[in-house]
Write a structure and sequence with these properties.
- The protein has helices at about 15-25, 40-45, 100-110; strands at about 10, 30-35, 50-60, 65-75, 90-95, 115, 120, 125-130, 135-145.
- The protein is α+β, with helices and mostly antiparallel strands.
- It starts with 8 loop residues before the first strand and ends with a strand.
- Helix content is about 20%, strand content about 40%.
Length: about 140
């Protein structure tokens, strides 16, 4: 049996509306919003009685998705938003962009902060990390040539 695809990456946030707006500014499309709750959902996550607001964001090519979740119940138990780039576990998502400078300019208006600097990797890419809404770590890559 072969792997078919990666459906989405999940990110838990406090401010769902601001995070949706940020990723829209980046270029993702809002696929839909929903409230997830009930016994079946708690069985999947192991959290029992849960109540979660989600927003599904889709990349323009429709191949990638982010599932943004805001937990109303149970409360968030840990906060990894300010973890450095070398922290263990899932840490960041990276997006390919046409123009890294223009993208940074737009996202700074939504509070994005450059983590280090924009660097050139050989003749292949310009790369950087930014902190987005709520300190989320996001990578940007501009293919050269």
């Amino acid at each position: 049996m072969a792997l078919k695809r990666m459906d989405n990456v999940g990110i838990v946030v406090d401010d769902l509306d601001a995070t949706v707006d940020f990723f829209r500014e980046l270029g993702l499309e809002l696929e839909g919003r929903a409230t997830i709750e009930g016994e079946w959902a708690g069985r999947v996550t192991g959290l029992g009685d849960q109540h979660v607001e989600i927003a599904m964001m889709r990349t323009p090519d429709s191949h990638g998705r982010l599932e943004l979740s805001r937990f109303l119940r149970p409360r968030v138990v840990s906060d990894h938003r300010n973890a450095p780039v070398n922290a263990l576990g899932y840490l960041r998502v990276m997006f390919a962009v046409d123009d890294i400078d223009e993208t940074l300019e737009r996202l700074r208006k939504r509070g994005a902060e450059l983590v280090g600097e924009v660097v050139r990797y050989k003749d292949a890419y310009r790369l950087c990390y930014i902190r987005g809404p709520e300190g989320l770590l996001i990578g940007l890559a501009q293919e050269l040539g």
